[in-house]
Backbone:
């Protein structure tokens, strides 16, 4: 089973890129973030024509998450993290697919830090951590994937000394990620490539992609019921180089049955 995550940075403006990538790589499940489209503007028919069942939670102008599946129907469980009923941002979608629980998330950026946006990032992280603990307690196969907006270690960022004050790399952010993983989750890509430089995002500015000045901010966390099934994973780095592509590249893992 091949599961992918991809921050598309605008699902309608990048639709040709998304459809090309789906046709080329054929993931069984794809989690998308940053749709930047209200619920009624999501390109449902184009996704279904590509062979996928689809579930999405849109939001006007920004945010938005979606799940695509050709591995079986998507059975939606929730479309918001518990813990704050006043948080209406579309950043989390959880569904059951083929006997597996998959959470698709778009964690807040948090800049500028410190400040209200950083406080929101950390509070959202806390809610995610609390919910993740509840998921682990169910002792079922769970995958939490998406754009976490955090570089967990210096290996995950080009020139880390330039990022020490950024919300994606501040000590509080990295500590929150490590606290989450310490519950018993497996960071799939880092497990497969423990010492290798791997990036999933390259800014549009200063020829970042050409210089390979990137960040690893899109992650897969696997519950103990899933981790032993991990056989492969990687980043479709070349997609970032396509015309009118997102500033993220798709990330994927493969799980044995």
Residues:
């Amino acid at each position: 089973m091949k599961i992918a995550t991809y921050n598309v940075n605008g699902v309608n403006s990048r639709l040709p890129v998304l459809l090309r990538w789906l046709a080329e790589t054929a993931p069984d499940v794809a989690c998308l973030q940053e749709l930047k489209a209200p619920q009624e503007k999501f390109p449902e028919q184009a996704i279904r024509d590509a062979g996928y069942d689809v579930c999405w939670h849109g939001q006007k102008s920004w945010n938005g998450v979606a799940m695509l599946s050709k591995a079986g129907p998507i059975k939606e469980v929730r479309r918001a993290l518990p813990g704050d009923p006043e948080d209406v941002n579309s950043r989390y979608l959880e569904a059951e697919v083929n006997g597996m629980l998959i959470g698709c998330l778009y964690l807040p950026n948090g800049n500028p830090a410190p400040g209200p946006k950083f406080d929101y990032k950390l509070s959202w992280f806390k809610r995610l951590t609390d919910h993740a603990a509840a998921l682990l307690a169910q002792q079922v196969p769970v995958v939490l994937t998406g754009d976490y907006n955090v570089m967990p270690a210096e290996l995950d960022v080009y020139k880390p000394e330039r990022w020490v004050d950024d919300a994606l790399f501040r000590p509080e952010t990295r500590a929150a990620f490590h606290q989450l993983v310490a519950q018993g989750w497996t960071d799939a890509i880092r497990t497969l490539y423990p010492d290798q430089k791997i990036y999933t995002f390259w800014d549009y500015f200063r020829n970042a992609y050409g210089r390979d000045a990137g960040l690893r901010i899109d992650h897969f966390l696997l519950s103990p019921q899933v981790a032993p099934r991990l056989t492969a994973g990687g980043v479709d780095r070349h997609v970032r180089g396509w015309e009118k592509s997102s500033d993220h590249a798709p990330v994927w893992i493969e799980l044995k049955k």
Notes: Helices lie at 15-25, 44-49, 116-137, 171-181, 188-192, 208-211. The chain has one domain: 2-255.
